[in-house]
Amino acid sequence: MENIQVHELAKNVARALREGKPTEAVEVLARLHPADRAEVFCHLDRADQNRLLTLLTPEEIGEILEYMTEDERHEVATRMELGTLSRVLDEVDSDVAADVLHELPRGEVEQVLSQMKAKERAEVERLLPYADASAGGLMLPVPVVLRPWMTAEDAINLLRREKPDTDIVYYLFVVDENDRLVGVVSLRQLVIADPDTPIGQIMDPQVIYVGPDTDQEEVARLMEHYDLLALPVVDRDRRLLGMVLIEDVVDVIEEEATEDMFRMVGLSEEERALGPVSQSVRLRLPWLVINLYTAFLAGWVVSLFEDTIAKVAALAAIMPVISGQGGNDGIQTVTVIIRSLALGEVDVRDLFRLLRKQVLIALANGAVIGTLTALTVLLWKGNAALAVVAAVAMVLNMLVAGIFGVVIPLTLKVLRRDPAQASGVILTTFTDVCSFFIFLGLATLLLGWI
User: Fold this and answer.
1) Domains located in the chain, CATH noted
2) Strands, DSSP E only, in 389-433?
3) pLDDT tens for residues 178-201?
4) Of 40, 211, 245, 321, which is the most buried if we count CB atoms within 10 A?
5) pLDDT in tens, 390-404
């Protein structure tokens, strides 16, 4: 739904609430898809949201929670009475309920669980020990499992009896007498098989699976790599614990991409465009302070060459060009390396291969950009020696940027730090300091010819 439609619907709901027409407000939401309801709900102010929470049924609130972000769910959940929250969590998927409870104080978690239905409580309690960002935190219970000795007809009759949610049954997992995962059968294979065919003959024994502590990024990578709609989660003995669905992984991919994008520029994924000013200041200020002092470091390097700049004022005009181009080249390299690390395409063992490639790229690009720089400086200042200094400095700076663009994220990975969080700041420091030192150092050495 387009933003303009969301804003208009939110206005209609708010107007109906303030004019004392609660039924009309609820009817506006009821006509929407749950994903659109969640979006409209989040565009209302807190007072209108609280009013709606008293008008909607637990099932209706649960449908809205399913389509909210984790931060939005937590914010809404903290405003609900614990009894109401327990009834709402009875209506949502167990992984969503576990995510909500993870954010509450322990005492409140126990109170909510004690008021939930027995079946739903048991499913949620199985997930609570696992981190939100793990396979265990994402998984859902497997609604139906098959046995190798069952026939295709037995399996179809089991599905008819159990009537599992058709939105989550993509594959049927096969377990042995000890509940260990031994195979997988697609619904298509089951339907076209002869009724008397044993499941053991039509199942695929080559099953891709993960443990409950597997990071959600690795889960997403495996599902993308093997083109899976569902991924089983097993314990150390390969006993089936649950499954992760592709719809949850899509959310993970979006969250991780947003997180990496924000962190590369020193922002937190918690920040929202319409969030509180105090929150934005708190999240941005530390990185701005760090950038301030790295800029002072680069300024100190420039101060070492004040005499040279005083004698050739044109150097001051060309310095930003050299440093800016190096920074751009380094950010391109860092972005490619961080993405490749996230997708599992490269690791630390590929360091020398990556360096060799980046050196060749830097030399090729540097030759072109350096030549263009020399011609531009020559036409602009009419100084051949200055043009040569600028060209050589450009090539060397792009070489440095390419090397550090590889080394910095790989080093952070070895140190078990998120490469996306600090690579940009560290790289900018290196490229600025090195560019000024190289350019002004060369100019100082060749001062007699400039």
Assistant:
1) 3-129 (1.25.60.10), 145-254 (3.10.580.10), 277-445 (1.10.357.20)
2) none
3) 999 999 998 888 989 999 999 999
4) 40
5) 999 999 999 999 999
